[in-house]
Write a structure and sequence with these properties.
The chain is mostly beta strands and 452 residues long. It contains no helices and 39 strands.
Length: 452
C-alpha cells in the first residue's frame, strides 16, 4: 500500500503527477513478547545495540507503556545502534511480529530498572545489561550465549555454569567477592575489574587470552594453567605472590600497586618485557627487633644485590630520579649485612624509612612503611593522662627519660637505695649515672635498666 498526497495550493501535483509515498507493507500489531523490564527513572539516556536473525526484521519497544511502539529495523549480519529515553515506573515490553523473528544481540545500557524478564531470549548469542541497576542475574540455561556483559551493576554473586559456551565475559564494577569460571571452558576474554574479588577459579580455561582483575582484593594468583594467556592486568590488588612462569604467550603484564617485593616479582626478561608495569608497589610492613630490621628476603635478586638506604620522614624523587630526604650515613648510623640492617641511632624516631633498589627492577623504588625506633628501649611504654608516651632510653653515661611534664622520676640502685629523684620540668630529662643496674620508677611505672 502507499499514500497519495495533494494540496489545493499545488494543483499541478494531481492526476498522474500526484505525490506518492513509497510502498509499505502493513503488519499486525506485534504480540510476540521477547523481553520486558520495569524502569525506575525518568529520562535515562538509553543506548541500544540490537541484531536480528532475519535481515530487515523489526523489533518494537513500548517505552511509555501505552502501546505506542518505537520501531527499530534490524540487520542480520551486524548489530545496529539506537537511542531512547525512559519513563519512570513503566513496564517496557520488547516485541516482534512473527514467532520466527529472534534477537541474536540484545544490549541495553544506562536504563535503570527494578526487574527484567529475558527468559525468551534463549537463542540470543550476546546479552549486555550495562549500568541498569541489577543486583542479580537470573537467566535460563543457554548453550547459545557467547557474550555476556553485566558491567556497572550491583551483583554480588552469580552462577555462570549455566552458560558453558561463553567466550566473552565482562562483570566490571560490581560487588563480587568470589567467582567460579571452571565450567566456562570456552572463555577467551574475561574482565572483572573493580570488584572486591579475593578468589577466582580459572581451572580448565585453556583458551583464555585476556584477563583483567584490576582493582580487586586478590592476594595471590597462579596463572600456570592458562597456557594461552596473552594479557594480564592485576594492578591495585593485594598480591604478595604471582605465578606466570608457564605463560609463554604473555605479552602484556600490569602488576602496579600491589604488595609485591623484588623477590616475588616476575623477572623483566619474560615474554611480556616490552609491556610490563610493576611500579608503585605498596610500602613493606616491617618492624624493628631490638636495633635490627630484617629485609633479608630482598638481599639478592637473581644474582644482583639490593641497595638499602635509610631515611627519616618523607622521601621524594626529583625529576632526575634521585632520592630527596633526610638520609642517614651508612656505616656511621647503620650497617647492612645480607639484608639485615643494624641501626646505630641514639635517639628515638617515629618515621624511619628504608628505600630499596635493585638493578633487576629499575622502575621500582621499594620502601617500608614508617618505622618507630627507640634505642635500648626498656619496655616502659604506656600512655599518661595527657596521652604522652613514657620511655626510658639508655645512653652513654646514664639514661634519658621521656614522659609528661611534672612526672616524678625515682632511680634506685640494686640494693634498694635511692640514687636520684626529680620532678620533670619538660618532657625529656637526662640522668647521669655510673655503669650498673638500676630500677627506675616514673609515676606508677617501673622498669629495670643497665647502664653500660
Amino acid at each position: 500500500m502507499y499514500c497519495e498526497i495533494s494540496h489545493p495550493a499545488y494543483p499541478a501535483f494531481t492526476g498522474k503527477n500526484i505525490l506518492k509515498t513509497t510502498l509499505v507493507q502493513p503488519i499486525p500489531t506485534p504480540t510476540n513478547e521477547l523481553a520486558s523490564f520495569t524502569t525506575t527513572n525518568n529520562r535515562d539516556s538509553v543506548q541500544l545495540s540490537l541484531r536480528g536473525n532475519i535481515d530487515g526484521m523489526s523489533v518494537y519497544f513500548d517505552w511509555r507503556g501505552d502501546g505506542a511502539m518505537s520501531q527499530y529495523v534490524l540487520k542480520a549480519n551486524t548489530y545496529t545502534r539506537f537511542t531512547a529515553l525512559t519513563n519512570k515506573g513503566v513496564k517496557v515490553r520488547v516485541l516482534v511480529s512473527k514467532p520466527e523473528e529472534k534477537l541474536t544481540v540484545f544490549s541495553i545500557t544506562n536504563a535503570k530498572m527494578s526487574s527484567i524478564d529475558i527468559s525468551k531470549l534463549a537463542d540470543t548469542r550476546a546479552i549486555t545489561l550495562d549500568n541498569v541497576g541489577l543486583s542479580k542475574f537470573d537467566f535460563a540455561p543457554s548453550t547459545a550465549l557467547k557474550q555476556l556483559d553485566l558491567s556497572r551493576n550491583n551483583i554480588s554473586e552469580i552462577d555462570l555454569s549455566k552458560y558453558p559456551n561463553l567466550e566473552y565475559l565482562s562483570m566490571s564494577d560490581n560487588k563480587l567477592t568470589k567467582l567460579d569460571l571452571s565450567k566456562n571452558k570456552e572463555l577467551i576474554v574475561v574482565s572483572l575489574s573493580r570488584n572486591n574479588l579475593t578468589e577466582v577459579n580459572f581451572r580448565g580455561l585453556t583458551a583464555l587470552e585476556s584477563l583483567d582483575l584490576t582493582a580487586n582484593s586478590m592476594t595471590s594468583l597462579d596463572c600456570s594453567r592458562l597456557p594461552n594467556l596473552g594479557q594480564l592486568f592485576v594492578s591495585n590488588n593485594k598480591l604478595t605472590s604471582i605465578n606466570v612462569k608457564n605463560n609463554a604467550h604473555l605479552r602484556a603484564l600490569n602488576l602496579v600497586a600491589n604488595n609485591l617485593r623484588f623477590s616475588a616479582l616476575p623477572p623483566t626478561t619474560g615474554s611480556y618485557r616490552t609491556s610490563y608495569a610493576y611500579q608503585r608497589q605498596n610500602p613493606v610492613d616491617v618492624s624493628v627487633n631490638g636495633n635490627k630490621v630484617d629485609l633479608s628476603s630482598e638481599a639478592v635478586i637473581d644474582g644482583t644485590p639490593t641497595v638499602y638506604r635509610w631515611f627519616t620522614g618523607n622521601v621524594n624523587v626529583d625529576k632526575n630520579g634521585n632520592l630527596q630526604g633526610e638520609e642517614f650515613d651508612v656505616d656511621a648510623e647503620y650497617t647492612v649485612t645480607n639484608g639485615v640492617t643494624t641501626l646505630k641511632l641514639t635517639k628515638r624516631y617515629e618515621d624511619l624509612v628504608c628505600v630499596m633498589t635493585n638493578a633487576k627492577f629499575p622502575k621500582l623504588l621499594l620502601h617500608t612503611k614508617h618505622i618507630r625506633f627507640i634505642p635500648d628501649a626498656t619496655g616502659i611504654e604506656g600512655v599518661n593522662a595527657d596521652n604522652t608516651d613514657t620511655f626510658i632510653k639508655v645512653v652513654e653515661g646514664g639514661i634519658v627519660v621521656e614522659a609528661a611534664a611534672g612526672s616524678v622520676v625515682n632511680v634506685y640502685g640494686v640494693n634498694g637505695g635511692l640514687v636520684q629523684k626529680a620532678k620533670m620540668n619538660g618532657t625529656s630529662q637526662s640522668f647521669s649515672l655510673p655503669k650498673g643496674a638500676y630500677v627506675v620508677t616514673i609515676n606508677n611505672k617501673v622498669a629495670k635498666v643497665m647502664v653500660k
